[in-house]
Amino acid sequence: MFINVMPISAAVMGTIVFHERLTWTHIIGALFVFGGILFNIYSKKEKKSVLVSREGKVM
């Protein structure tokens, strides 16, 4: 799941090393990526808690 952070780190490294411009498009895309990662993490936690409450054991 964290492989999605690679383009963000590449944009940051390009800005630092090659002095490329970091635009609002990059920032908005990074926010979408981080939002998707957080959504994925929290949806798995919710799914796990629902399984525990229904069956009484962790699956």
Total beta-strand segments: 0
Q: What percentage of the residues does DSSP assign to strands (E)?
A: under 5%
Q: Portion of residues in helices?
A: over 70%
SSE class: mainly alpha
Number of helices: 2
Distance between the termini: 21 Å
Global Rg = 17 Å
State mean pLDDT (0 to 100 scale).
Answer: 85
Overall spatial form = elongated
Instruction: Note the run of SSEs as H and E.
Output: HH
In the predicted model, the low-confidence regions spanning at least 5 consecutive residues are: none
Largest sheet, if any? none
Keyword list:
mainly alpha
Question: Explain this structure to me?
Answer:
- By secondary structure, this protein is mainly alpha-helical.
- The chain is built from two helices and no strands.
- It has helices spanning 6-18, 24-55.
- The longest helix is centred in the C-terminal third of the chain and has 32 residues, at 24-55.
- The protein is elongated.
- The model has no long low-confidence stretch (mean pLDDT 85).
